[in-house]
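Regression test case RT-17, inverse folding.

Input:
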């Protein structure tokens, strides 16, 4: 309070006393109790009113004790129950949570985790995944800029998320309380199996397998990959106390089209405590995506051989070089490459008017541009008889498909008649042309899409020189062949637009998120946000049907089907307003990742403790953990003096007392006949 405010308050006291004295005590014939009461009430009312007008700032000091937070986090995943650690973990959790000494020193707060980090409301040890890294990230967000210890009750076996050892803040100590039997048992397990979800028919696909061994003696294990009763691969793997892991790289043939279910198994003559982790089911969908390409030309040219060899580096492409008069039907081809069309190509254009097969037109010095003007509508040509060399310039804004600049500007020029090429509609230009480094503002390689039919145009011959030049500089054809393959892939893609588009996998592992995404388009092919989508999922074995609504996301509709047991399922997605529907199927593979473990991961949890300068404890060392936490002088409660300042006018009770004083004075005067 300032000196000016104090003087005003003293002055207010004087004024209040003077007013009450003058009105009730000055020249008063008698000073009865009623008169003295009225004088006091008037004094209080005037002083309170003046005090409110002055409105001094009132300061109040309070002392607050802030304890160090102590998060106690328990592992709620199913592996705790599988290792028979659930009851002990819950006992330790309750013991620490209810410890009076810890509660006196710390602000004890409890959490649980499995796939997510949650408050410890319902601990049932049924979590399908273990994500200790989620604990690290959430604790960082909850206790920002604070120094605190963490007690982690877990077996340390993580099945999802990033490496948790380096996820925790190294400035905050972590004290893992390791539960489970740490005795080493003989155990073989498939730690991880990596395989592509898709493979091409008649190719070979790689399978990468990581095998782990726990034991004290040497043994030979047998590893097999089987499909039904057929053994696709079998080999012997040696393990010893010094060699506890092995990595196998296997190539399997993709002989059959469709979803192929396979089983990987590792075994030995020794008995094991846990044999569930010896087997892993996996699946590969073999796709027959052979693309038949007709390279139609009425002349001999080095470009034809170069294009054929380049495209066929992808085993899923087959190029047939034919003359226009040899084409009887187009139904056997997915893409047409028309090399320097002339009048001889008239029958090809006429047949393709009905077939609507995607085409790649390559022009050159022998092209009949008048014929092209009459038989295609994407470009208009005004060409002269003069030949010209055109260099390429890469357009970075091209976005139909991803392609890096492989040095197009350094390639030799292509030859084409000099003239004007004008696009009649929307055209996506990948390469534009220059003449002696002067831009022509005309395309060299462009792509079009009209009413679902795709086309590409290369305005110049001698592309064989590009491939040869690339080899001279890079000693291989890889990136150049990828460039031509992506061109063919764009043309070969089925781009028929459906009103209901559904995305899903053909198989999922048990415990994984089973998400199905759908988009519904109106007649203008705009995403309809008001669509009502439902899905009916049927187990093909039990015939049990489950119905769900798809929920709106930012740009699609989605449903999560977590909780489905292993088996085959069929489903139908339906849009209720239009009755548009899509049917498909998927398989849930029998794989419980939480059953892969035999022991707690003491080494990993101990590494975490060392990384954060904490200490790992076993279940029977809980008292030692409590003692260390209580004796650690770095975690002391902090007392803070909090000064709260508030203006007097905020005091509601002073206003109430002022009103009561004025009312009482009026009633006393009325009662004594002074009004």
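Golden output:
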């Amino acid at each position: 309070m300032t000196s000016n405010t104090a003087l005003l308050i003293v002055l207010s006291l004087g004024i209040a006393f003077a007013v009450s004295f003058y009105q009730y005590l000055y020249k008063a014939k008698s000073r009865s109790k009623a008169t003295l009461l009225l004088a006091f009430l008037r004094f209080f009312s005037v002083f309170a009113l003046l005090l409110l007008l002055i409105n001094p700032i009132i300061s109040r000091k309070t002392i607050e004790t802030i304890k160090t937070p102590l998060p106690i986090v328990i592992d709620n995943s199913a592996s705790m129950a599988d290792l028979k650690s659930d009851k002990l973990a819950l006992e330790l959790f309750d013991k620490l949570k209810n410890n009076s000494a810890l509660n006196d020193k710390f602000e004890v707060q409890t959490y649980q985790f499995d796939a997510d980090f949650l408050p410890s409301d319902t601990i049932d040890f049924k979590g399908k995944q273990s994500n200790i890294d989620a604990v690290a990230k959430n604790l960082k967000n909850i206790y920002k800029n604070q120094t605190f210890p963490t007690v982690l009750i877990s077996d340390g076996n993580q099945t999802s998320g990033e490496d948790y050892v380096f996820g925790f803040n190294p400035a905050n100590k972590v004290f893992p309380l390791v539960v489970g039997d740490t005795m080493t048992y003989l155990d073989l397990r498939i730690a991880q199996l990596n395989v592509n979800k898709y493979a091409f028919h008649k190719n070979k696909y790689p399978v990468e397998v990581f095998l782990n061994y726990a034991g004290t003696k040497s043994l030979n294990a047998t590893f097999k990959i089987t499909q039904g009763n057929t053994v696709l691969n079998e080999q012997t793997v040696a393990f010893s106390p010094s060699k506890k892991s092995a990595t196998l790289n296997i190539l399997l043939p993709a002989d059959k089209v469709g979803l192929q279910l396979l089983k990987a198994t590792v075994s030995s003559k020794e008995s094991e405590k846990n044999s569930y982790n010896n087997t892993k089911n996996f699946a590969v969908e073999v796709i027959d995506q052979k693309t038949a390409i007709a390279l139609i030309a009425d002349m001999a040219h080095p470009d034809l051989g170069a294009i054929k060899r380049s495209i066929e580096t992808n085993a899923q492409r087959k190029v047939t070089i034919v003359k226009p008069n040899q084409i009887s039907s187009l139904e056997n081809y997915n893409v047409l490459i028309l090399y320097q069309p002339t009048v001889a190509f008239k029958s090809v254009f006429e047949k393709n008017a009905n077939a609507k097969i995607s085409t790649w037109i390559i022009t050159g010095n022998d092209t009949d541009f008048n014929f092209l003007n009459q038989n295609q509508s994407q470009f208009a040509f005004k060409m002269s008889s003069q030949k010209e060399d055109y260099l390429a310039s890469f357009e970075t804004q091209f976005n139909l498909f991803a392609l890096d600049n492989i040095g197009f500007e350094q390639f030799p020029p292509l030859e084409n008649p000099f003239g004007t090429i004008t696009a009649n509609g929307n055209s996506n230009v990948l390469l534009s042309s220059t003449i002696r480094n002067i831009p022509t503002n005309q395309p060299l390689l462009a792509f079009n899409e009209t009413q679902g039919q795709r086309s590409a145009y290369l305005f110049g011959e001698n592309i064989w020189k590009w491939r040869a030049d690339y080899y001279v500089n890079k000693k291989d054809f890889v990136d150049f062949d990828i460039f031509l393959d992506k061109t063919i892939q764009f043309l070969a893609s089925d781009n028929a637009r459906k009103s209901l588009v559904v995305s899903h996998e053909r198989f999922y592992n048990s415990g994984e998120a089973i998400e199905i995404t759908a988009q519904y388009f109106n007649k203008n092919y705009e995403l309809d946000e008001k669509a009502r989508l439902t899905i009916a999922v049927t187990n093909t074995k039990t015939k049990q049907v489950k119905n769900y609504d798809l929920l709106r996301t930012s740009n699609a509709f989605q449903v999560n089907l977590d909780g489905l047991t292993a088996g085959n399922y069929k489903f139908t997605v339906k849009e209720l307003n239009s009755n548009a529907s899509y049917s498909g199927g998927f398989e849930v593979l029998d794989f419980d990742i939480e059953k892969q473990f035999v022991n707690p991961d003491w080494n990993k949890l101990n590494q975490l403790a060392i990384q954060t300068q904490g200490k790992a404890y076993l279940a029977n060392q809980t008292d030692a953990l409590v003692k260390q936490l209580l004796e650690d002088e770095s975690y002391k409660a902090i007392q803070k003096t909090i000064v709260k300042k508030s203006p007097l006018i905020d005091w509601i009770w002073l206003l109430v007392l002022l009103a009561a004083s004025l009312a009482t004075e009026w009633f006393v005067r009325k009662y004594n006949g002074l009004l």
